[in-house]
Amino acid sequence: MFQADLFKEKKILVTGGGTGLGKAMASRYLQLGADVYICGRRKSVLDECADEMMKEHGGSVKTISCDIKVPEAIEDMVNEIWSDGPLSGLVNNAAGNFISRTEDLSPRAFNAISNIVFNGTFYTTNIVGKRWLKEKIKGSIISILTTWVYSSGPFTVPSAMSKSGLATMTKSLAAEWGNRGIRLNAIAPGPFPTKGAWERLAPGDTSKGMMESIPMKRTGELDELANLAAFLMADGCEYLTGEIVTIDGGQWLNHAGNFYDMLKNVSDDEWEQLRSMIKSSNESDKAKRSV
Ligand code: HXC
Question: Fewest 10 Å CB contacts: which of 12, 23, 106, 113?
Answer without folding.
Answer: 106
